[in-house]
Specification:
With 162 residues, this protein is of the alpha/beta class. 48% of the residues lie in helices and 15% in strands. The radius of gyration is 15 Å and the shape is globular.
Length: 162
């Protein structure tokens, strides 16, 4: 039975690192939602301009289609995606097989991580807007980012039955 795990949180929370390792451990496909942004969205973020709901509309539709395709084909995947607002998660939750794992950290923890990153289009200056947009999920496995990636993966696996 196909399952989809969306590893979510603000930029710098570890979604890509954890998601890619989780998918590899499970033998599932992995996708990074950042790869689905339009060039215009990437440029906007690189200039320090936060995306709005209109900017995210086509991006969310493409992610929803990706998830739907996996569900219809009966194949499992992991998607690293900010999914900051409940309505974004509602769009991605195409059925009950879509589960969310929220990587939760403080502004200070994540700001420190982001300052250490190299060659990423998302500038640390946009972190404040990410926290402002964040609506913490009601229906997700919530994992504190102070755990190691391996510990986070085990918590997600236990909480999502993956």
């Amino acid at each position: 039975m196909a399952q989809v795990i969306v590893v979510m949180g603000v930029s710098g929370s570890g979604k890509t690192t954890v998601g890619a390792r989780l998918a590899q451990e499970l033998g599932w496909s992995f996708y990074d939602a950042d790869d689905f942004h339009s060039e215009a969205n990437r440029e906007k973020m690189a200039q320090g301009i936060p995306l709005n709901d209109a900017d995210r509309a086509e991006w969310l539709k493409s992610l929803q289609a990706l998830i739907q395709k996996h569900v219809e084909e009966g194949t499992s995947c992991v998607l690293a995606c900010s999914a900051l607002k409940q309505r974004y998660r509602d769009t991605l939750a195409v059925n009950e097989k879509v589960r969310f794992a929220y990587l939760r950290g403080s502004f200070e923890q994540i700001e420190t991580r982001m300052k250490l990153r190299k060659d990423h289009y998302m500038p640390v200056e946009l972190l404040k807007s990410q926290f402002e947009a964040l609506e913490e999920p009601r229906d997700a496995v919530i994992v504190d980012i102070s755990h190691s990636p391996d510990e986070i993966i085990q918590i997600i696996r236990k909480g999502t039955n993956a």
